[in-house]
Amino acid sequence: MLRVVMMTSGEEVLSLSETSLEDLAKAGKDHARGLKEHLALLTGHTRFRQRLLRGDDILSDSTKLDSPSVLHLVLLSFCPPDDSHLLEFAAALAVDNANVVEAFLQIPCDPNLSLNVGITFLSMASQHGSLNAAKLLLEARADISKPDSHAGRMPLHWACARGHAELVRCLLESRADASRAWSHGEMRLTPLHLASATGHTEASQVLIDADAAIDSAAHSTGVTPLWSACVAGQVATARLLIEAGADVNKSTLDGTTPLIVASKENQVEVVRLLIRFKADKDHVAASGLSALHVASTLGHVDVLHSLLTIGADIEAASPMGARPLHMACVAGHMEAVRLLIRQRANPHHADRQGVTPLMTACCTGRADLAQLLVQAGADSNHGTMVQGNRTDIFPLHVACYNGDAEIAQVLVNGRADLTASTSQGLTPMDIARAHEHHNVTELLEAAQERPRRRRRVKGPP
Q1: Residue 341 in 3-state DSSP?
Q2: Spatial distance between the Cα atoms of 156 and 189, rounded to a whole number of angstroms
Q3: Is 354 left (phi over 0), alpha (psi -120 to 50) or beta?
Q4: Residues in contact with 57: Cβ distance below 8 Å, sequence separation at least 6, in sequence order
Q5: In terms of Cα–Cα distance, which of 374, 387, 320 is closest to 347?
Q6: Which among 12, 84, 318, 371 would be 20 to 30 A from 222, CA to CA?
């Protein structure tokens, strides 16, 4: 029989029969360490804080158990480490040096202390993917839910953000909360948010298998793990989440869906993935803008092409009445304008202020866009309604005011009315002369002279 008694009181803690010792031997636990692990369940103190003595000798962990025998148990208090020990321990955690970690815990040192930077020991191991060190700390009963004093992250957050899948699995098996959020500014990010945003597919799969909430929304923003993956262009992770049941149309609180944010960030492959999984191509955010509006504004031609291929509404109007073609013209994206025209965007549509894409091109001095629009049939004589229903100004007036001879020539070639007047009665020529734009004045005079010459030309005798 093997008896274990408290060194101080002599109270018996454990008594093992020969049969029990044989069972320990079969389990490979017939040594001092195995006995300490068993005693940890009885005393609540981990093996690191136990010392077993036979007489005056302290047993090493590898010492074989024999019977009959009486062993004395001593339970140690934690010893505060000095700075040099902490530095050595931090280095060991970073490189997963299990021997140094074991020796540190055997001092014994409190596994729930933090390094000088405020990060806990377990978070440090999780950050670096140090699986063996993490297992030792967990055995020493490191608090799996203790946040860092500086960043506020818990060990599982670090492991997920760095993509250490095996460590994620280890922490979850030790009952880490797969859906516990980390507060980051206004957002509360779950482990799945972090793994998804950083494209760690294997870690994401481990979390999904552990029933992590797939569509959990970050507190005050509504950002989901799928949204996080899409904005970062993490195609594989986005696919994994969708196949696991993530809602492709779940939006943030401002109505921005994964498709809209992927379009904004020019994440072409993510856009195509979302399209394959039937994302709502015409969903409008609280701003009144769809994915097509966003892509047009930013000139993301490949995204535009993907959206137009599946029939996204090319004439969808913003709250101000602007169509995608307007927005591409305002931002001056030539290739986007060319693509929209090729896909039959209507160049005549005016926004709520009566501004057409052609007027926009004239106001921004983009002769190339004006030429493209005129060639597509844009009306050079469509005026802007700025006073009720009254036409106040035409594209040619704008070109004359700006002294832009190149745009004026494009408009004249597009049969702009040389005599059209503003509500104040000013013609293009009046405006050009008033601002002393002589090159534009000469161009207009030449254009006015051409019809007269044609009228004077007689037919053959």
Answers
A1: helix
A2: 12
A3: left
A4: none
A5: 374
A6: 318
What is the pLDDT at residue 451?
A: 62
- For residues 180 and 145, what is the distance between their CA atoms, to the nearest angstrom? 9
Q: Rounded to a whole number, what is the distance in angstroms from the first to the last CA of the chain?
A: 139
According to the model, what pLDDT value does residue 364 have? 94
Q: Which contacts (CB < 8 Å, 24+ apart) does range 70-74 have?
A: 70/2, 70/3, 70/4, 70/5, 71/2, 71/3, 71/4, 71/5, 71/35, 72/4, 72/5, 72/6, 72/7, 73/4, 73/5, 73/6, 73/7, 73/13, 73/39, 73/43, 74/7, 74/8, 74/50
In whole angstroms, give the CA distance from residue 181 to residue 305: 38
* Local structure of 324: helix, strand or coil: helix
Which tokens is 114 given? 């933090």
The token pair that represents 105 in the structure block: 């815990």
Helices and strands counted in the chain (H then E): 24, 9
Report the length, in residues, of the chain: 461
Q: What are phi and psi of 2, to 5 degrees?
A: -115, 125
Average pLDDT, stretch 51-62?
Answer: 94
Q: Domains in the chain, please, with CATH?
A: 2-75 (3.10.20.90), 80-177 (1.25.40.20), 355-461 (1.25.40.20)
Are 448 and 418 in contact, with CB atoms under 8 Å apart?
A: yes
Q: What digits encode the pLDDT tens for the residues 435-449?
A: 999 999 999 999 998
Which residues are bridge partners to 258 per DSSP?
Answer: none
Please, are residues 30 and 24 in contact by the beta-carbon 8 Å criterion?
yes
Q: How many CA atoms lie within 13 A of 96 on its CB side?
A: 10
Instruction: Name the token pair of 74.
Output: 């001593």
Q: 72-99: per-residue pLDDT in tens?
A: 999 999 999 888 888 899 999 999 999 9
Instruction: Show the beta-strand stretches assigned E in 168-305.
Output: 182-184, 187-189
Show Cβ contacts of residue 439 under 8 Å, excluding neighbours closer than 6 positions: 403, 405
CA 59 to CA 409: how far, in whole Å?
99
Rounded CA gap, 292 and 331, in Å?
Answer: 14
- Strands of the 2-6 sheet, one edge to the other: 12-16, 2-6, 69-75, 50-54, 57-58
Contacts 24+ apart (CB under 8 A), 317-323: 317/351, 318/288, 318/289, 318/293, 318/351, 319/287, 319/288, 320/351, 320/352, 320/353, 321/350, 321/351, 321/352, 321/353, 322/293, 322/351, 323/349, 323/351, 323/357
Give the DSSP H/E element, type plus range, for residue 340.
helix 334-342
